[in-house]
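Protein fold
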Amino acid sequence: MVNLQKPNITFSPNVCIYIRTEIQAVFGVGNAQTHDKYLGLPTLIGKNRKKTFNEIKERVWKRIRGWKNGIFSLGGKEVLIRAVAQAVPTYTMSIFHLPLGLCDDLGSMLFGFWWGSNNGKRKISWVSWKKACVPKVLGGFG
Protein backbone atom coordinates (compact mmCIF):
# COMPACT_ATOMS: atom_id res chain seq x y z
CA MET A 1 0.00 0.00 0.00
CA VAL A 2 1.12 3.54 -0.66
CA ASN A 3 0.51 6.25 1.90
CA LEU A 4 -0.52 9.26 -0.18
CA GLN A 5 -0.12 11.55 2.84
CA LYS A 6 3.66 11.25 2.59
CA PRO A 7 5.15 14.29 0.83
CA ASN A 8 8.32 12.70 -0.60
CA ILE A 9 9.64 9.54 -2.16
CA THR A 10 13.19 8.28 -2.52
CA PHE A 11 14.42 6.43 -5.57
CA SER A 12 17.37 4.17 -6.14
CA PRO A 13 20.07 5.67 -8.38
CA ASN A 14 19.30 2.80 -10.80
CA VAL A 15 15.78 4.10 -11.56
CA CYS A 16 15.76 6.16 -14.77
CA ILE A 17 14.55 9.74 -14.67
CA TYR A 18 11.56 9.04 -16.93
CA ILE A 19 10.15 6.43 -14.52
CA ARG A 20 10.82 8.71 -11.54
CA THR A 21 8.80 11.56 -13.04
CA GLU A 22 5.98 9.19 -14.01
CA ILE A 23 5.70 7.82 -10.47
CA GLN A 24 5.87 11.31 -8.95
CA ALA A 25 3.11 12.51 -11.27
CA VAL A 26 0.82 9.55 -10.52
CA PHE A 27 1.14 9.81 -6.73
CA GLY A 28 1.64 13.57 -6.50
CA VAL A 29 4.74 13.40 -4.35
CA GLY A 30 8.14 15.09 -4.52
CA ASN A 31 11.57 13.50 -4.74
CA ALA A 32 13.66 13.47 -1.56
CA GLN A 33 17.36 13.18 -2.26
CA THR A 34 18.18 11.63 1.13
CA HIS A 35 16.49 10.90 4.42
CA ASP A 36 18.48 11.48 7.57
CA LYS A 37 16.50 8.99 9.62
CA TYR A 38 13.80 6.41 9.22
CA LEU A 39 12.13 4.97 12.34
CA GLY A 40 14.83 6.69 14.41
CA LEU A 41 17.68 4.97 12.58
CA PRO A 42 20.11 6.48 10.10
CA THR A 43 19.33 5.58 6.49
CA LEU A 44 22.87 6.09 5.21
CA ILE A 45 25.95 4.97 7.09
CA GLY A 46 29.26 6.36 5.93
CA LYS A 47 32.79 5.27 6.68
CA ASN A 48 32.81 6.88 10.13
CA ARG A 49 30.36 4.58 11.91
CA LYS A 50 31.24 5.92 15.36
CA LYS A 51 30.21 9.43 14.29
CA THR A 52 26.99 8.10 12.74
CA PHE A 53 25.92 6.39 15.97
CA ASN A 54 27.27 9.07 18.33
CA GLU A 55 23.71 10.20 19.04
CA ILE A 56 23.17 7.00 21.02
CA LYS A 57 26.10 7.86 23.25
CA GLU A 58 24.71 11.37 23.78
CA ARG A 59 21.26 10.04 24.69
CA VAL A 60 22.71 7.59 27.23
CA TRP A 61 24.93 10.32 28.68
CA LYS A 62 21.93 12.65 29.01
CA ARG A 63 20.05 9.98 30.98
CA ILE A 64 22.97 9.16 33.27
CA ARG A 65 23.78 12.80 33.92
CA GLY A 66 20.21 13.41 35.12
CA TRP A 67 20.44 10.77 37.85
CA LYS A 68 21.72 11.81 41.25
CA ASN A 69 24.39 9.25 41.98
CA GLY A 70 24.42 9.50 45.78
CA ILE A 71 20.78 8.61 46.40
CA PHE A 72 20.75 5.15 44.81
CA SER A 73 21.68 1.86 46.36
CA LEU A 74 23.61 -0.65 44.25
CA GLY A 75 20.32 -2.39 43.47
CA GLY A 76 18.74 0.90 42.35
CA LYS A 77 21.73 1.64 40.12
CA GLU A 78 21.49 -1.82 38.61
CA VAL A 79 17.82 -1.33 37.80
CA LEU A 80 18.46 2.06 36.20
CA ILE A 81 21.34 0.71 34.12
CA ARG A 82 19.42 -2.36 32.95
CA ALA A 83 16.00 -0.78 32.39
CA VAL A 84 16.94 2.65 31.07
CA ALA A 85 20.55 3.03 29.95
CA GLN A 86 20.88 -0.35 28.25
CA ALA A 87 17.47 0.04 26.60
CA VAL A 88 18.51 3.14 24.63
CA PRO A 89 20.82 1.37 22.12
CA THR A 90 18.91 -1.94 22.03
CA TYR A 91 16.75 -1.20 18.97
CA THR A 92 19.68 0.13 16.97
CA MET A 93 21.82 -2.84 17.98
CA SER A 94 19.14 -5.22 16.72
CA ILE A 95 19.65 -3.84 13.21
CA PHE A 96 23.24 -2.56 13.02
CA HIS A 97 26.58 -3.69 14.39
CA LEU A 98 27.75 -0.81 16.56
CA PRO A 99 31.46 0.10 16.48
CA LEU A 100 33.48 -1.42 19.30
CA GLY A 101 34.79 2.01 20.30
CA LEU A 102 31.25 3.24 20.83
CA CYS A 103 30.39 0.14 22.86
CA ASP A 104 33.48 0.73 24.99
CA ASP A 105 32.45 4.36 25.55
CA LEU A 106 28.94 3.31 26.59
CA GLY A 107 30.34 0.70 28.96
CA SER A 108 32.72 3.24 30.45
CA MET A 109 29.88 5.69 31.11
CA LEU A 110 27.75 3.01 32.76
CA PHE A 111 30.65 1.75 34.84
CA GLY A 112 31.42 5.32 35.95
CA PHE A 113 27.82 5.73 37.08
CA TRP A 114 27.96 2.39 38.88
CA TRP A 115 30.95 3.33 41.01
CA GLY A 116 29.98 7.00 41.31
CA SER A 117 31.93 10.22 41.70
CA ASN A 118 32.56 12.97 44.23
CA ASN A 119 32.73 16.59 43.04
CA GLY A 120 33.64 15.50 39.51
CA LYS A 121 36.34 13.06 40.71
CA ARG A 122 35.76 9.40 40.00
CA LYS A 123 35.69 7.05 42.95
CA ILE A 124 37.80 3.92 43.12
CA SER A 125 36.42 1.06 41.07
CA TRP A 126 36.91 -2.04 43.15
CA VAL A 127 36.31 -4.51 40.33
CA SER A 128 37.51 -4.35 36.73
CA TRP A 129 34.90 -3.90 34.01
CA LYS A 130 35.67 -7.32 32.52
CA LYS A 131 35.05 -9.03 35.85
CA ALA A 132 31.87 -7.01 36.41
CA CYS A 133 30.40 -8.11 33.07
CA VAL A 134 30.69 -11.80 33.90
CA PRO A 135 27.28 -13.52 34.48
CA LYS A 136 26.00 -13.49 38.08
CA VAL A 137 26.28 -17.27 38.41
CA LEU A 138 30.01 -16.91 37.75
CA GLY A 139 30.47 -14.10 40.29
CA GLY A 140 29.94 -10.99 38.14
CA PHE A 141 27.21 -8.36 38.03
CA GLY A 142 25.51 -9.91 35.03
Summary: The chain has two domains: 8-42, 50-138. The chain has a mean pLDDT of 77. Residues 1 and 90 are 29 Å apart (CA to CA).
